[in-house]
Amino acid sequence: MTSTITNRRDLDFLLYDVFDLLGLTAHGHYADHDKETLDAVIDTAQKIAEDHFLPHAALVDEEEPTFLNGKVEMRPEVKEALTHYYEAGFLAAPHEYDLGGMQLPHMVSTAIKGIFTAANVGTTAYPFLSGANVNVIKNFGTEEQKRLFMEPQLTGRYMGTMALTEPQAGSSLSDIKTTATPGDAGSYRLSGNKIFISAGDHELSENIVHLVLARIKGAPPGVKGISLFIVPKYLVNEDGTLGERNDVQLAGLIHKMGYRGTTSTMLNFGEKEGAVGYLVGEPNKGLSYMFQMMNEARIGVGVGAVVLGYSGYLNALAYAKDRPQGRPPQNKDPKAAQVHIIEHTDVKRMLLASKSYVEGGLALALYAARLVDQLKTAASDTEKEESRLLLEILTPIVKSWPAVYCLEANSLAIQVLGGYGYTREYPVERLYRDNRLNPIHEGTHGIQSMDLLGRKVTMQNGKAFKILAERMAETIAAGKDQTGIKDFAIALEAALSQVEQTTRTLTAEAAKGNIDLFLANSAVYLEVFGHMVVAWIWLQQAITAQRGLEQASSEEDTAFFQGKLQACRYFFRWELPKIAHGCRILEDFDRTCLEMREEWF
Amino acid sequence: MTSTITNRRDLDFLLYDVFDLLGLTAHGHYADHDKETLDAVIDTAQKIAEDHFLPHAALVDEEEPTFLNGKVEMRPEVKEALTHYYEAGFLAAPHEYDLGGMQLPHMVSTAIKGIFTAANVGTTAYPFLSGANVNVIKNFGTEEQKRLFMEPQLTGRYMGTMALTEPQAGSSLSDIKTTATPGDAGSYRLSGNKIFISAGDHELSENIVHLVLARIKGAPPGVKGISLFIVPKYLVNEDGTLGERNDVQLAGLIHKMGYRGTTSTMLNFGEKEGAVGYLVGEPNKGLSYMFQMMNEARIGVGVGAVVLGYSGYLNALAYAKDRPQGRPPQNKDPKAAQVHIIEHTDVKRMLLASKSYVEGGLALALYAARLVDQLKTAASDTEKEESRLLLEILTPIVKSWPAVYCLEANSLAIQVLGGYGYTREYPVERLYRDNRLNPIHEGTHGIQSMDLLGRKVTMQNGKAFKILAERMAETIAAGKDQTGIKDFAIALEAALSQVEQTTRTLTAEAAKGNIDLFLANSAVYLEVFGHMVVAWIWLQQAITAQRGLEQASSEEDTAFFQGKLQACRYFFRWELPKIAHGCRILEDFDRTCLEMREEWF
User: Is A360's pLDDT higher than 90?
Assistant: First the structure.
């Protein structure tokens, strides 16, 4: 049976052919890996995901965790699946050998995360949050903090959370109010309320390590007064054994549209004597620590959005190939057999649009993951700096583009299945509901648009965009030399030039200090920029596919490369031209939204 | 508290000011009504909807009907709400006085349906399906059929369904297989399986009257061999008392993404001795009877899509006015108070886009409802024929445009509420889930696009489009004379001309017999045509609003009219220009989707 959680042919194409994964193994850090070892890790992930994660995905959606007698209860399949995940070493895999890891390239970790997420986003969220937590402690914690709070997470004995959001602050982190008061032996006592804390309580691990943003009494207002603390559910003794229950209480579970297998919690810190917390790094630098992890977290969201959409597409494709219904418009003879719906042009349209979104999105996410790898493997400081800047400017795109377009693939998957797609008998509606979170968490779409235009595009006098434009120009030059690709290359060149012009117009206004006008239509800028970037990503795929087609030795290969080229064609003909309208709104400094008034609604 | 199910200010504006509801009362059929009586009916509907439908909307979403001990069980609030609905006479209201009705204009019935649907789509579906059933029997049934099966539905003693879809046929009605064999006393025995039959079983009424499409043995293949039957759950004696249980069995309930309060059923007819059914009208004309009701049913879907989106918007608006978070980009001082999120330009964008969709959608639906009324009130056959043709060509737009754009308003409402919007604490995610059905049922989006381009635009040598273009030209001429409106009128004139040109190009290909190429991108045509129509509907609103603004005597009125004009501006600047890209794809006869092959996916 064809997998509905991953398309390994496409994944291989992207990892090995388009983005040269093996090129990374020239670097010492990844030198032990080759295609065989990497394939084996991905195979194992797919097998565990299909055997232990996928089968209970619908079940944990229907039967959410409950809060009963002071404990969170959930289906036993979750714990069982996670045992397989941890036993195969997937949480530690990205880390160094001396931490029990495999020193896996981030590209491969990203692909694996995608496979598990596509299988069961609810169950997968528990280890993924631990993974993010581990990265923070690893980068900014003391040796003792690593020993006591990070290492037990690598094997699943402990799990972790990221406790940022508060009810009154939401996305506005400068307004968080949780306070920390110096206590015994260098520890702090924390007090405050957090909301939307995923995996914030459960019985899946011996302990839960919360990473909590809080304000040390007397700290400056705003983002410059926020510190980061480790606050464990159970205190941990010097020797690593568990001590008393800490003053962290589950105030309630939040019930959501999707992601229903993951507990989303309201947590009260310090309702009694104050929750014991340990400062990570220096006071008042908590947000900068968090944000140094944010690129990877946001790429993680992008990958999640991609694979949920991708799985929707794979399900719709399987259905469309199998479901007979109706006849072509030129043959309405009711005595003729019905055709499979994949033969209807409008169904092809929906599937081809989806293909262009999800394969474009996956390529984008893997390219970003490669940039993360390049931070490790760069041959020079300049190369490293360039990768860093590319990652900075692409992060809001990776976070937000798939959250719109791969979510659209989920909606199209429902549409392809018709009435059946709207039922809970098929997974497509669940995948849609799960994916609808992605335009919201880890910085909403609006916040990404402000980050892109207000910060990333303008920083260092536009250096990040300049480097991106250079890389795009290289691809364009390569594409222009290739038969069958030239038209795409020319179209991308025009799009780049258009977006550069728009950007100059906008930043000139920013230079005049008209910040509100500069940023007024930032959502449109994000849209335009995203389509330009994904067109570039598609051109890279098309160049490789065109070469592959010329050398293809099997019908299967030929069909695969033809499909890539047709999806690229779809993106260039149906999607890319939409940026013209967006650029016009931006260049006109359209004030329709800016000037709308509350009382007019 | 502001209502979250209806905006009466807008409804009044559309009914009375833009579409001249009272003009209809010049006609005898509606002559007893005036503004006072009509307002009173709408007030009553709103009160019953808010008091008895809205409070249990979330409850029936969480606790779906179950199939227990051979019976469908559901929350008692459903029956209680329906008792109020029937006691107030809402099911009979559109009908003649001698049927216990109020001879309500269809515009008002439509508005009322919208109010109930916005309050609780799950509960509302039961009487609405009965309403459709009643219309069919009223138009095509015998006097006895009306007495036995229609009249008890007017008071809620019986309810009804429309049983069209079969598992193997789906949208392809020509492939339905349920058979009817002549039986005793002019009756038939039916045998076959139906799926997705809403309200197909329940204990809300004494009896359930199924209207079933089936094939009389020996009938021609395809749509020309389909007949329509009344098949009651319980047989009915001559005197109207209930007889034996008919051979109709509930095979199972279908669990859906939304609309969870409405039973969606699989029904088996004739598993034992055959289900007793009564032919409606003549043999083999069943589909044409159904389709004569389809315009109203499809307008009904459009209204449903509008009001679910509208309610999402009203909820988002209330939240945005109340929720403090963040600060404007030009003032990031963390010591300053947070502003309400409605002050952020990107939130205004989401709300303004939603406003343009839902108010545009409501106006479109009410305009279509007025055309239904005009079939009754037309002063001449020509006028009646023009209304009929306008209704024909606009029906696919009314069915499908709100199902895309008002659904988008639901998604934007989730986004405005952010993390909260994704929870089941607020209704916005439920409204989204409910609305996601509307692009599917009563003819999918793809089917609407084929209906529009393949049938409605070409029928009678394009007469329907010609009449529509004339009406649009009248509005354009009026708009050109008005300060503040002129630019919109000019833009619409250009859009109309562009769509006319595209249509000529397409139909020329159809004339050559290249039907597959002609219809290949029909979904794009539907999109383009829909935006053109809604722009016209917005221009009509803007003309009235501009006049209103010039005469406004209160701040509240001024704000209302300014809001209308700004939403119109949004639609003309941000939305209408998108049709240029669609027209290019169409005029190029883009073959990207048509030429995609199954093996390339």
Answer: yes
B584 to chain A, any CB pair closer than 8 A? The answer is: yes
Which residue in B173, B411, B528, B592 has the most chain A C-beta atoms within 10 A of its own C-beta, making it the best mutation to test that interface? B592
Residues B64, B151, B442, B527: which is the catalytic one? B442
CA distance B71 to B214: 26
The terminus-to-terminus CA distance of chain A in angstroms comes to 53
Active site residue B63: no
* Identity of the residue numbered A61: D
pLDDT in tens, A490-532: 999 999 999 999 999 999 999 999 999 999 999 999 999 999 9
Residue of A nearest to B221 (CA): A334
Segment A194-215 shows an average pLDDT of 97
User: Which residues 158-177 of chain A have a CB within 8 Å of chain B?
Assistant: 165, 168-172, 174-175
Do A5 and A119 meet the contact criterion of CB atoms below 8 Å apart? yes
Q: Which residue in the set A222, A257, A577 is minimally distant from B422, CB to CB?
A: A257
DSSP string for residues in A421-477: GGBTTSTHHHHHHHHTTTTTSSS-HHHHHHHIIIIITTHHHHHHHHHHHHHHHHHHH
Two tokens at A126? 């528990």
One-letter amino acid of B376: K
Q: What is the pLDDT of residues B202-239, one digit of tens each?
A: 999 999 999 999 999 999 999 999 999 999 999 999 99
| Side chain identity at residue A387, one-letter code | S
Paired tokens of A201: 């309580």
Nearest CA in chain A to B342: A598
**Buried/exposed code over B322-338 (b: 16+ C-beta within 10 A; e: otherwise):** ebbbbbebeeeeeeeeb
The active-site residue out of A359, A442, A493, A527 is A442
Average pLDDT over residues B252-260: 97
A338 and chain B in contact, CB less than 8 A: yes
Question: Per the CB < 8 Å rule, is B597 touching A559?
Answer: yes
CA atoms of B422 and B428, how far apart (whole Å): 8
